[in-house]
């Protein structure tokens, strides 16, 4: 409902409608009273003195004093110290292991003096104190005594039960010529065998002997008796000979020889004839065997049943590759039979909806091309390829998208479903308007619990908008603000905005007919009532 203010008011004229009173200041009507109570400080007191306001919109000015400045940004008052006082933290008392000292004045000096074997120094034009340890002898150490018995050449420090004192290395058990292990002793002294005591006995060649050979057994063996120094030979049996990988022909085949166990390389025509009786084979079998051996010596790889080198004769560096029926000559790179090919590679590159890219040769090159908005960089040392988006930024609004028609709709317009979207406006600093749903200035609006109501703040001209409860306290829950660029703020952070969309999720627990308010935080006259209705009471 519109408020009918007088058309030609004079300064300090008041106007009351219902329980609300306004006062004319020559430019605008300012709120004087309202039935909704406000908690305010009526008197401000300092360390010295106090002040009370004279009028409802009186101003209290906070000024800086000596070495103090003040500033206000938004609703924040900042009080700063501009210096002039004591700016450093200092220790007025210094305590050491023995004794302490107290500063006599604010600029008193503490001297750092070196003690025994200690020297102090401060580099010119610096505030760094350097504490150095002076050179000292080993006898300075509290548990070393080299004065009671001065050391001589070759002695070492050994623990005598009280101190580390000089002692002879070879006679007092400290490691040296009497050590029971040579680990770490690689000097010329220890490498000379003649310098060692308790040397083991050296076996002479005449200590060894060869005994009578043993009965044949298995593959044969040579054994050694460590107590007597005797070597003995055990010949192999006939079965053992069959397991040998080589065979030397002899004239004695009295032992049973299995023909199949004799390697082909060790069978000659003379041996076959000589030992025909011992081997129990006929002349015919010998003739067949000779034919077989002769045939073997003249065979080529093409004689194998699954190898074909005649259809296509091989060339240098080719390999045999399986073609599904035979092993045939082929180039290593295409036949997969070896050569210098040592990598797995894709010969066909497939992209969905596009033509395949196929390698034409074994050294063909695939080129990666950057399209619009795409940047490609390579790193030869790291064998890497980087694809980046070179666009400065994406679309800020729906209308900026080439494939979307939104008639000016931004993300904050559709962030959340609301029962109503109130298009807020303003009349100078005197009132808010909601011409989309209500007429007049600062109209009273009705909201339903259990629903969401949206306030479009794009038309309020920069006046900070705040929702308050029936005690005029700012709401701190159930609020979501979405800026035009999509930035989301919630609860207390959603208050005080002058653009974008403010969503109020009306709590179902609010009592029926409770009056909440909307308020410009900068101008008290821009103030309206929100009557909350419970859904159950409609």
Report on the biggest sheet: 5 strands, mixed
The CATH architecture of the domain at 407-537 can be named as Sandwich
Distance between the termini: 21 Å
* Structural class computed from helices and strand pairing: mainly beta
Q: Helicity, in percent?
A: under 10%
What would you report as the Rg, rounded to the nearest angstrom? 54 Å
Low-confidence stretches: 171-175, 251-256, 334-339
Strand order of the largest sheet: 23-27-31-29-30
How many β-strand stretches? 33
CATH topology grouping of the domain at 407-537: Immunoglobulin-like
By oligomeric state, this entry counts as single chain
Mean pLDDT: 78
Shape: flat
The percentage of residues in β strands lies in: 25-35%
Considering the protein shown, what is the CATH homologous superfamily of the domain at 407-537? Cupredoxins -  blue copper proteins
Tally of contiguous helical segments: 6
Q: Given this structure, which CATH class of the domain at 407-537 is correct? A: Mainly Beta
């Amino acid at each position: 409902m519109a408020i009918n203010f007088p058309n030609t008011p004079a300064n300090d004229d008041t106007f009351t409608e219902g329980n609300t009173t306004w006062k004319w200041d020559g430019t605008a009507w300012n709120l004087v009273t309202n039935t909704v109570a406000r908690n305010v400080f009526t008197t401000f007191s300092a360390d010295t003195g106090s002040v009370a306001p004279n009028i409802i919109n009186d101003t209290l000015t906070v000024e800086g004093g000596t070495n103090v400045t003040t500033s206000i940004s938004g609703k924040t008052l900042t009080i700063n110290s501009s210096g002039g006082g004591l700016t450093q933290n200092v220790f007025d008392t210094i305590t050491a292991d023995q004794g302490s000292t107290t500063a006599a004045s604010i600029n008193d000096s503490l001297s750092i003096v070196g003690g025994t074997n200690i020297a102090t120094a401060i580099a010119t034009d610096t505030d760094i104190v350097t504490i150095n340890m002076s050179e000292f002898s080993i006898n300075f150490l509290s548990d070393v005594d080299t004065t009671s018995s001065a050391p001589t050449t070759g002695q070492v420090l050994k623990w005598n039960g009280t101190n580390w004192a000089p002692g002879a290395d070879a006679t007092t058990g400290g490691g040296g010529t009497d050590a029971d292990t040579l680990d770490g002793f690689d000097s010329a002294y220890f490498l000379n065998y003649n310098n060692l005591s308790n040397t083991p006995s050296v076996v002479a060649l005449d200590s060894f002997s060869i005994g009578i050979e043993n009965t044949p057994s298995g593959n044969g063996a040579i054994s050694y008796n460590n107590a007597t120094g005797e070597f003995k030979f055990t010949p192999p049996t006939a079965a053992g000979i069959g397991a040998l990988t080589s065979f030397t022909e002899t004239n004695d085949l009295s032992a049973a020889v299995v023909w199949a166990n004799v390697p082909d390389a060790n069978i000659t025509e003379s041996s076959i004839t000589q030992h025909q009786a011992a081997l129990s084979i006929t002349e015919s079998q010998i003739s067949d065997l000779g034919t077989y051996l002769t045939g073997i010596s003249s065979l080529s790889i093409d004689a194998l049943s699954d190898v074909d080198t005649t259809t296509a004769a091989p060339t240098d560096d080719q390999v045999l590759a399986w073609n599904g029926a035979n092993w045939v000559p082929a180039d290593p790179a295409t036949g997969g039979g070896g050569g210098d090919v040592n990598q797995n590679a894709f010969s066909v590159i497939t992209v969905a909806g596009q033509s395949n890219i196929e390698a034409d040769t074994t050294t063909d090159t695939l080129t990666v091309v950057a399209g619009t908005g795409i940047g490609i960089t390579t790193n030869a040392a790291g064998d890497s390829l980087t694809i980046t988006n070179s666009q400065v930024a994406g679309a800020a609004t729906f209308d900026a998208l080439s494939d979307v028609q939104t008639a000016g709709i931004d993300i904050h317009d559709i962030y959340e479903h609301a029962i109503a979207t109130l298009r807020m406006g303003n009349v100078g600093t005197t009132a808010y308007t909601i011409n989309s749903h209500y007429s007049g200035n600062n109209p009273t609006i009705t909201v339903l619990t259990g629903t969401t109501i949206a306030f479009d703040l794009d038309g309020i001209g920069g006046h900070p908008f705040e929702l308050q409860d029936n005690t005029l306290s700012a709401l701190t829950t159930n609020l979501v603000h979405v800026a035009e660029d999509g930035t989301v703020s919630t609860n207390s952070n959603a208050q005080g905005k002058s653009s974008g969309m403010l969503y109020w999720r009306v709590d179902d627990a609010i009592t029926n007919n409770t009056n909440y308010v909307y308020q410009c935080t900068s101008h008290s006259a821009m103030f309206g009532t929100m009557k909350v209705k419970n859904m159950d009471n409609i």
